[in-house]
Specification:
2 strands, 9 helices, mainly alpha, globular, two-stranded antiparallel sheet, 271 residues, 77% helix
């Protein structure tokens, strides 16, 4: 398993880095769109679609909607605001699981949930790539989410006692969640002070970072909820040793629209 994980990472990491660094505009949108469409293929399975044809059809629908959104050039807030509202709803579904599982018993409803997860993540990332310093913002977002995972892992291993959401993800603990949050706050504070941000900007940055981390956990737990509901360990086996695409980007699907909306609303006041 470890060998597979290393081989997959060695192959995919340079491709991902090259895509983020060298692609812009339409090509970047298509690059991210391809990843999101693969995520759509996986989500159809989590939504209860058992046939391969149905899963492929759902992925095609996701891809077509991405093309429509790109051509339409809607103001990004039209996508980000509903996305954040959706993730608040998703947090409630996670907290109340399994009480409300009847809401998505119909696979079509669960597939709509998938669109609310995947499409705003694509839109937010494409928008971030286009704004000034967009590549650095995307890097900051990913480092923030990864740092939260690392902090949560070590805090959970060291102090973890109380389960965070035992019905959804038994391995996660409250101590791990708080450890990830504290670690990212400290790292963010150091980074913003190094960049010379004003005191008010630092406070806004810390608040934004906290929101992103909290919602990244909601994204992770939401995918775990649907996997548990379908009795699945991974979203697919597309990435040997790593599971599926959604298993790698579940936290980011929620973190991206939150981060993008925070930057849209307050980015001009920072720095």
């Amino acid at each position: 398993m470890l060998k597979q994980r290393i081989i997959t990472a060695v192959i995919l990491a340079p491709l991902a880095i090259a895509g983020f660094v060298f692609l812009e505009g339409l090509w970047f949108a298509l690059f991210i769109g391809a990843v999101v469409a693969l995520g759509g293929w996986e989500w159809a399975r989590l939504a209860g679609e058992t046939s391969q044809a149905g899963r492929v059809f759902y992925a095609v629908v996701v891809a077509l909607l991405i093309l429509v959104m790109y051509r339409a050039s809607w103001p990004v807030q039209y996508v980000l605001v509903p996305a954040v509202i959706w993730w608040i709803v998703a947090a409630l579904l996670v907290v109340r699981y399994p009480k409300d599982r009847g809401l998505w018993a119909n696979p079509r409803v669960a597939q709509v949930f998938g669109l609310l997860i995947l499409l705003p993540a694509w839109a937010g990332l494409v928008w971030l790539r286009q704004v000034p310093h967009g590549l650095w913002l995307i890097m900051a977002l990913m480092v923030l989410v990864w740092a939260a995972d690392i902090g949560a892992y070590f805090a959970g291993k060291t102090w973890g006692r109380r389960k965070l959401m035992p019905n959804v993800s038994p391995g996660k603990t409250i101590e791990g969640f708080l450890g990830g949050l504290v670690f990212t706050q400290v790292a963010t504070l150091i980074g913003l002070l190094y960049l010379g941000w004003s005191a008010s900007a630092v406070l806004l940055g810390l608040l934004g970072a906290a929101l992103v981390v909290v919602f990244s956990v909601v994204g992770d737990l939401t995918e775990s909820l649907f996997k548990r509901d379908q009795g699945l360990k991974d979203s697919s086996n597309l990435l040997p040793g790593h599971g599926g695409v959604l298993d790698r980007i579940d936290s980011l699907t929620a973190a991206i629209p939150v981060f993008a909306l925070c930057w849209l609303l307050a980015g001009g006041q920072l720095g």
